[in-house]
# Entry
Amino acid sequence: MTTTDNLIRRLATEPPLPPFNPRRMALVMVLSIAVPVTLFLLVLGHRQGLAAAWSNPVVPFKTILPLAASAASLLLLLRLARPGARAGGAVWLLAGPGAVAVALWFGAYALRAAPERFAEVSAASLGECLGSILLLSVVPAAVILRVIRQGASTWPRLSGALAGLTAATGATAGYSLFCTRDNPLFFVSWYGAAILMVALVCAALGQRTLRW
Amino acid sequence: MQATEDPLGILLVAANAGDGQAYARFLHAVAPIVRGIVRARGRGLPVDLHEDIVQDVLLAIHLKRQTWDAGHPLRPWLYAIVRYKVIDSLRARGKKVYLPIEDYSDVLPAEETADPLDARDDQREVDRLLGQLDPRSAEVVRALELREEPQAEVGVRLEMTPVNLRVTLHRAMKRLAALARKDLP
# Structure
């Protein structure tokens, strides 16, 4: 009997593994985002006059776009957790919020006078925005990277990036309820930068931790 | 082809439900497919490494078998794993790459090859071979194979889980076997 036959004999005596359950994984991932964000908002509170701010048609995009991106990247992440699966239309779901964000940025750039465009940019505002999103993303990114290892992505780097994207966009959606800077030139740029940073770090981590 | 039409799919459905015989038949049926792909892709490798890669791929299928959705065709899933692991295994043999040890189950056969230390009575020779391993792997071999210490104690001392210990030992013994083979006239 060859060593491969021996290996097969041994493997065949192993008990079956628990079923792969994407819904349960999704629930854990969503909770990993929701809990830190809820704690953050409970401690610091949401912005004053949130309801009034939402009457400005641009402001809801601060929350809706990252939320949509988070849902789309979560869907894509779970889909790619099975070998041989294809991304399919979920890629377009992810591209949609990105395209709207870019349109908002260019729209704001075109409509605002030059001195107003980047008036809100300061070390303090950048630190608060980037720092908060990065900090809020740490726990969900770690949990999501951990949970997705139950799957078998044949694209570890991409799956890592999607894990980071899911975490960071989810965190951003929560943070946007606190943030008072409503200029798309500000929030698209700096929310986007923070999201990109988390996605890149998670892509590098995914390359190492999601191999199997 | 749906799972219910594919003989391999039927076997894997039964295997995932706990039928060990069906699982053995499934793996035996898959092994030649994997072997063929390894042979085609691994032309530059020594032939004796091909079977190691086949085993790596079978182990990967074993570890990730629950990710197959029985409602979908089996073959794309199977070929994606085979392609991924064959490339990964080939790359690992071409250069050092990171492989997370925790991803391996606790079913690795430690005694897969003849003990490379059996024919090495000379202590200096054994030390020389072990010196070519990383210190942690060498200590695992010394503790479990030479001093025959209980696995639980070794695990506590080296702060390694039983799974990590077994995988580390498995890899170290394979590496030692390769080193020993290289030394033979």
